[in-house]
Amino acid sequence: MFDLNQPFQWKKCLSALPTQQAGQYVYLITQQEQAYIFKFLGENAEQGIRQSFAHELNAYRQFQTEQFCADFLIYTASNVENINFPIPVINEILVMPYYQTLNIDLSKQFSTDKRIQIFQDICLSVQHLHDLDYVHGDLKSRHITFSNPVKLLDLAQTSQIYEVTRQAEISATPAYMAPELFLGEAISIQSDIYALGIIFYEILMGEKPFMGKNYQDWATQHCQADIPLFATEYSLYQNILDGMLAKLKKNRFSEIKTLINALNLIKKT
């Protein structure tokens, strides 16, 4: 793991420009040929960003002994005052390995059976989080490691299931947002399952089931477009996809265990 007392090299900023303008920065660094991520806030950080980052750090601390939690270190700004950061840093710094994520086309690299197993491993990690009475709130390919066991990244939107209320502002990613989130409802187990449905389609087909150019496009697609049909070779899994991407929460799988059981039944046929 990263050693603050050893030299390291700054490589590049991975944050999108709007995120930087809001005061949050993610940098890729290397130390002894290992890649790591530095995530921190600048002095210009907006209040909402500060609250979200503090929540994320607390979530990592809370789940640090769980298998789905990424390896991490947290330093205070005073710990790193001798390091020449690209900008002045406030509060705390999150450090973790640079994980390979699912943001790759698995459809050309692995057999169908292997990809189904990868998806089941993802489901097990999310189920573990749900079993602790928490929802992730921002599941997407970039937030899931391509590893065994699967790690869940970016815990900034995690919420306790029984404390989630109507949200004034949704911070999830539009490409993975359930229809009800566009209508102002709160995140839930079913919205996590919907996001898993998008990921399931990506794993099998190598592309997203819906496409949009802006927030309104995504809202229209998720709320109104028909669930796409799988190619013939994956037609066995159509009912499972339908059970994840149903427009109404009540028509989706009630829990991930049911989803995993449905996948296991197909494997036995």
Could you explain how this protein is built, in words?
- With 269 residues, the chain is α+β, with helices and mostly antiparallel strands.
- The chain folds into two domains: 89 residues, Phosphorylase Kinase, domain 1 (2-Layer Sandwich), CATH 3.30.200; 163 residues, Orthogonal Bundle (Transferase(Phosphotransferase), domain 1), CATH 1.10.510.10.
- The chain contains eight helices and seven strands.
- The strands form two sheets. A five-stranded antiparallel beta sheet has the order 1-2-3-5-4. It has a two-stranded antiparallel sheet with strand order 6-7.
- A hairpin with a 2-residue loop joins β2 and β3.
- α3 runs antiparallel to α5, α3 runs antiparallel to α8 and α5 runs antiparallel to α7.
- The longest helix is centred in the middle third of the chain and has 20 residues.
- The chain is globular and about 60 Å long.
- The relative contact order is 0.10.
- The mean pLDDT is 93.
Task: Detail the topology: elements first, then pairings.
Blueprint: E1 9-13, H1 17-21, E2 24-31, E3 34-42, H2 47-63, E4 73-76, E5 89-97, H3 112-131, E6 134-135, E7 159-160, H4 179-182, H5 189-205, H6 215-224, H7 238-245, H8 256-268
Antiparallel strand pairs: 1-2, 2-3, 3-5, 4-5, 6-7
Helix pairs in contact: 3-5, 3-8, 5-7
Keywords:
alpha+beta; two-stranded antiparallel ribbon; 269 residues; Phosphorylase Kinase, domain 1; five-stranded antiparallel beta sheet; Transferase(Phosphotransferase), domain 1; 8 helices
